[in-house]
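QA checklist item 7 of 12: single-chain prediction sanity check.
[x] sequence parsed
[x] length recorded as 175
[x] structure emitted
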Amino acid sequence: MEKATFGGGCFWCVEAAFERIAGVEDVTSGYAGGHVEDPTYEEVCTGDTGHAEVVQLTYDPDVVSYPELLEVFFKVHDPTTLNRQGNDVGTQYRSAVFTHSDDQQELAESFIETLEDEGKYDGIVTEVEPLDAFYEAAAYHQNYFEKNPDDAYCQATIPPKLEKLRENFEAQLKA
């Protein structure tokens, strides 16, 4: 098993997408990229801790590769909006790839370069940096969409992402 960590706006949205990918064994919502040790959700929401809301995946590389995870990540969020995803605004919602190895760092940077060369996006702002620390979010944030499918925020933001996931990655979805 290997790990991957992505920040693409609200962690509830990114978590809901990756939970459906075959080979992803665990998705944990949390925080990375900041300067405060073990921050709370409320602290991260101020934008003062420097953290991004992220999901950390535990995945089986024999079932899903890191480049495939990158492909999903870039399809389910907008990598061209600085510190914003939809109505969620602030540095905590930035687009970021936090790498666990030099290989992941190189793959992520190369993947972004290819997307830019192909003209698939206009001005990717996704940060790519080594993961320094990951702090798990409180229990009520874990599997949030599964536990709160009727939440107004979830209903407005997550189903369109899941539809995009089905349209683009049907073969990679869990049965």
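[x] summary fact logged: Helices lie at 11-18, 41-45, 66-75, 102-118, 144-147, 152-169.
[ ] second reviewer sign-off
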